[in-house]
Design a protein that fits this description.
3 helices; mainly alpha; flat
Length: 87
Amino acid sequence: MSHRIRSNKIKRRRGFTYLWILVLVVSVFLLIYFEQTSLLYILATLGVTVLLVVVATADLGQSEKSSEGPALSSDTLSLQSAAKPRK
């Protein structure tokens, strides 16, 4: 795939993202303006619930491993930093 086509897809996605943000901002503003806070509360609760379900079902353990080898644990990093001489 050429660089130009990839760049156009990214720009198109970015435009849709900005459109979604604008629609959500206007919707929240209108709900607050017309004092429909109960509906806003319900929508916010549903949004957080959907976000939690997406995070819970994300397959984070099966993500691609980096080709650099195993990642260092925090214990290994703290031992390495402690072993370095201080100036």
